[in-house]
């Protein structure tokens, strides 16, 4: 199997970065279109407009309607055709960025994504999640390449609710352990081949950065500050975790996250909060050393990530419901089958219950 690593063509991170966005976009095209929802437009719209004015570049903007759906993608494609758009810029959350990626793919124009939060590692990836206009999951759309540029304005991101930054740490927490499992099993990664040493190194650095800077970053963000630790955690949540998961592989933690969506009590949780508990379950599943499990437990407790089902909203352990979670995690095609040993639902159920008690 060939070794493959994929990534954005350019990753840019800095404080007040959006005030200089046009400088970075200018070499990519002369007719840019920005998509952002109402909230993000109010938050950074004037800053972005001023940047393009300073660079003497025209700028078209359209309001994102809130759902990365086929009709919304087609609406923006029509706008691109009418206005001869040659570069698409998505500013905001995951669905805005996924829409920009899809439009760029269909129009074959450069894609720039500028997240206003660091709650997942999705911005760097070569995929979009497509929903129905009503918000139900429809399909994954896989692209032949990653975004042309990812721009992280750390001042904007540090000003977002702290829970989102912590959720990003939960998503990033799984990266090293899933990469390690995938490397051991030799299964194909999302990049389409075996992991490179570079991708493995980034996954490990991601975990090390979380342990070193996670708590410091949370404290700084809670007090409205953008410190060096915040900068490091934004990079870990987004770039290190993004390259790590896509080019090193997913395994148990994300499959268990998907299984947890069966529990209505967990629907209020962010992606990374469920992934953090999924990481603990994966470690139990592979019978990792207690010292390693305790390291992960201590980290989760320090930043406020859930370590047991009660913290996730589950009042009583219903074994029948947890069996459904385990079965969903082991569904055909799930990433849990990238673990370096066969996994059955009974194994996952035992690991969930054990992880819950260890984390209580």
Offer a few descriptive terms.
single chain; 360 residues; alpha/beta; six-stranded parallel beta sheet
Account of the protein in words:
With about 350 residues, the protein is α/β, with parallel strands linked by helices. It is built from 13 helices and eight strands. Helix 4 links the parallel strand 4 and strand 5 (about 110-115). It is globular. The N and C termini lie far apart (about 40 Å). The relative contact order is 0.12. One of its GO terms (molecular function) is metal ion binding. Pathway: Polyol metabolism; glycerol fermentation; glycerone phosphate from glycerol (oxidative route): step 1/2. It catalyses: glycerol + NAD(+) = dihydroxyacetone + NADH + H(+).
Tertiary shape: globular
Low-confidence stretches: none
Strand proportion, as a percent range, falls in 5-15%
Strand order of the largest sheet: 1-8-5-4-2-3
What's the count of strands?
A: 8
- Looking at how many chains there are and whether they match, the oligomeric state comes to single chain
- Summed up, the helix count is 13
Structural class: alpha/beta
Indicate the radius of gyration in whole angstroms.
Answer: 20 Å
Mean pLDDT over the full residue set: 96
Q: What sequence of helices (H) and strands (E) makes up the elements?
A: EHEHEHEHEEEEHHHHHHHHH
- The end-to-end distance, rounded to whole angstroms, is 42 Å
Largest sheet: 6 strands, parallel
* Helical amount: 40-55%
Family: Belongs to the iron-containing alcohol dehydrogenase family.
Binding site for NAD(+): 37, 94-98, 116-119, 125, 127, 131
InterPro entries: ADH_Fe/GldA (IPR001670), ADH_Fe_CS (IPR018211), Glycerol_DH (IPR016205)
Pfam families: Fe-ADH
């Amino acid at each position: 199997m060939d070794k493959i690593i994929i990534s954005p063509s350019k990753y840019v991170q800095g404080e007040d970065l959006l005030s200089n966005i046009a400088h970075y976009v200018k070499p990519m095209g002369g007719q840019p279109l920005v998509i952002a929802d109402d909230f993000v437009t109010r938050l950074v719209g004037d800053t972005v407009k001023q940047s393009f004015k300073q660079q003497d570049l025209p700028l078209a903007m359209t309001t994102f309607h809130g759902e990365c759906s086929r009709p919304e993608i087609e609406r923006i494609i029509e706008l691109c055709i009418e206005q001869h758009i040659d570069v698409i810029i998505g500013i905001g959350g995951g669905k805005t960025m996924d829409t920009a990626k899809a439009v760029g793919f269909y129009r074959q124009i450069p894609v720039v994504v500028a997240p206003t939060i660091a709650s997942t590692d999705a911005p760097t990836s070569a995929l979009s999640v497509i929903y129905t206009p009503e918000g139900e999951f429809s399909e994954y759309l896989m692209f032949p390449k990653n975004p042309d540029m990812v721009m992280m304005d750390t001042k904007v991101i540090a000003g977002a609710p702290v829970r989102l930054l912590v959720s990003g740490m939960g998503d990033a927490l799984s990266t090293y352990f899933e990469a390690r499992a995938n490397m051991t099993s030799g299964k194909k990664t999302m990049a389409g081949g075996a992991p490179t040493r570079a991708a493995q190194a980034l996954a490990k650095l991601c975990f090390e950065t979380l342990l070193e800077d996670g708590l410091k970053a949370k404290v700084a963000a809670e007090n409205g500050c953008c410190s060096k630790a915040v900068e490091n955690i934004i990079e870990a949540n987004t770039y290190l975790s993004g390259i790590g998961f896509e080019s090193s592989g997913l395994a148990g933690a994300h499959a268990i996250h998907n299984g947890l969506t069966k529990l209505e009590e967990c629907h209020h949780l962010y992606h990374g909060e469920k992934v953090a508990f999924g990481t603990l379950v994966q470690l139990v599943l592979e019978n990792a050393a207690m010292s390693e499990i305790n390291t992960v437990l201590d980290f989760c407790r320090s930043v406020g990530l859930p370590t047991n089902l009660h913290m996730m909203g589950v009042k009583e352990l219903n074994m029948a419901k947890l069996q459904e979670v385990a079965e969903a995690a082991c569904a055909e095609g799930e990433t849990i089958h990238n673990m370096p040993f066969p996994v059955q639902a009974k194994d996952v159920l035992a690991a969930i219950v054990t992880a819950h008690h260890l984390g209580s």
